[in-house]
């Protein structure tokens, strides 16, 4: 990241600084991925380097036309994937789902029935029972 103070902009300092960065990093301007560029930076890149077609990425970076050019594909040491014979593929909605057909009781505490007396099997609270008798005594 770099920034040129407003009072020093349009005096060539930004171009000089940017050009020095490009030379020291040995990179071309269209090979840069810029993280959340400001409109001023995009204007700067357009004016001085002709980068006018910003390609936004999902991670807030912006790249430019030519970013992926001259990439050398590395030889793959992996074997190609075996080809499977063509067979009919069922859509997920039609696939067999036997586990959905079985009705199983949900695990505790989701299998408790509400409204039973205190301490009864399946009561609202297996530890202390219902609070209703306590509230009525007050």
Automatic annotation (TrEMBL):
Residues 1-68 form the N-acetyltransferase domain. GO terms for molecular function: tubulin N-acetyltransferase activity. This is ATAT acetyltransferase. It comes from Bucco capensis. Pfam families: Acetyltransf_16. Keywords: Acyltransferase, Coated pit, Membrane, Transferase. InterPro entries: Atat, GNAT_ATAT. GO terms for cellular component: clathrin-coated pit; microtubule. PROSITE patterns: GNAT_ATAT (PS51730).
